[in-house]
Design goal:
Layout (H helix, E strand, L loop, with lengths): L21 H10 L1 H8 L11 H10 L11 E4 L17 E4 L6 H14 L9
Parallel strand pairs: 1-2
Helix pairs in contact: 1-2, 1-3
Length: 126
Amino acid sequence: MSLPYGGFIGFQNQHLLLPYRKTDFDRAYQLVPEAFRLTWNHRFRSLEDINEWTVRYLRNLAGDFTPGYLNGTFLTLADFKTSPPSLPRRTKVIVINDDGHYADQVVDKVARFLNARFPEKCAYEK
């Protein structure tokens, strides 16, 4: 809530699916072309690079969004340390954030969870 502070204080950042349009990137490029050019010149990510969050924030600031519910479940590798999480079958989007728990047995649990959850390859993977 930003009312006590007298104005805008930021965005809530959900780590779930968020669609973009080419026009979103075109508009961002028109606003900060030099930042894009500098980013394109880096072979590997740099702290000074811009990314899709820049495009997202510029779109939000322009009011070009529709508020709504983000469908999906956000997990971290730590959620797999003891046993795989139990999710409803209707859950179509699962985001697994790498939070530093890279033990082989945790990564194996994630792989088994995903293989059991999605046994068939999607059209993109074929």
